[in-house]
Amino acid sequence: MIRAKKSLGQNFLIDKNILEKITNTTSIQDKIILEIGPGTGNLTSFILQKNPKKMIVIEKDNELANNLEKKFENHIKVIKEDILKIDEANLFKEKVTVFGNLPYNISTEILSKWIINLKNNFWFDCLVLMFQKEVANRIVAEYNTSDYGRLTIISNWKLNIKKICDIGREAFSPRPKIESSLLLFYPKKNFIKINDPNNLEKITRIFFNQRRKMLKKPFNQLFNGDQRVLDKLNIDLKLRPQNINLDTYYKLAYEYEKLRS
To answer: Quick check: bond before 174 cis, omega within 30?
Structure first.
C-alpha cells in the first residue's frame, strides 16, 4: 500500500465527483496532456478516459512513478523529475494542457516559475491547477482587498484566471488540514510588455514589503520621486500598495525598465 509522504506535501484526491469535475473543466480529447504530481493516478485515470492524444506525467517520488508505470504501462509517459528543475518550454513541440494537484508547500513557487519564465509564445493552452484555498484567494483577489498582493499581480500579468470551485478536505486521503480550490488559467491575447519579468518581481517585492505603509517610500526608492511617472500613471503616493490596480503595476514595471535603459 502506498502511503502519502508528508515531506512532499502529498494528499491524494479520491472524490470521483471532483475528479470528474476537474476533467470537465477543459477539452481533453486529442490534446497533449501534462499532469503534475499524479500521485496514485486517480486523476490520470479520469483524463485517459477522455482520449487525449498523448499523456505525460511528472512525478518526483520514485515509488509513485514506478507504480504509475506499472499501472498505466504504455498509456502514459512518466518523467521522474522535480517540476522546479524542468524547462517545460523546451519539453514540448506542441502546446499542452496542464492538470495539477500541486504540492501545497511549493505551489506558488511552481506557478511563479512558469509565469516569470514565460516567453511570448506560450507552451500551454491552459492550466487546470489546484491550490490551498487561501493561496487561490490571493491569486484571484481584487485590488483594495487584504488578499491582493504580489502573487495576484504576477499571476494575472499574462494570464486570465477563473475560479472553478472549492474542494473540501474530505475529497483527499489523507485529509489535509485546509480546504482547496481549483483554478483555470489561460493566456491573455494582450498584456503590457515587460522585457525582464524580474523587474515586475522586484517592483512588487519593494512595494509590498511594507504593505500597510503609504506608496511614497517605495516609489522614491525605485523612481527617485520622478514626478513624470506619477503624472503619467496618475498615482497618489498617499495610497497603500493594495490600492493600486493590476495594470498600474505592469505600467510601473514598464516605466522602470525605460528609466534603466
So the answer is: yes
Q: How far apart are CA 81 and CA 128, in angstroms?
A: 20
Q: Please tell me whether the overall predicted TM-score, pTM, comes out greater than 0.85 for this model.
A: yes
CATH number for the domain harbouring residue 238: 1.10.8.100
For residue 128, give every residue at least 6 positions away whose Cβ sits within 8 Å of its Cβ, in sequence order, or none: 22, 25, 26, 97, 98, 99, 100, 164, 182, 183, 184, 185
Interval 34-56: pLDDT, tens: 999 998 899 999 999 999 999 99
Q: Rounded to the nearest 5°, which phi and psi values hold at 181? A: -140, 145
- Do residues 165 and 202 both lie within one domain? no
**Pairwise CA distance, residues 180 & 135, whole Å:** 9
**Last residue within a domain, chosen from 187, 213, 243:** 187
The DSSP bridge pattern shows strands 77-79 and 12-13 to be unpaired
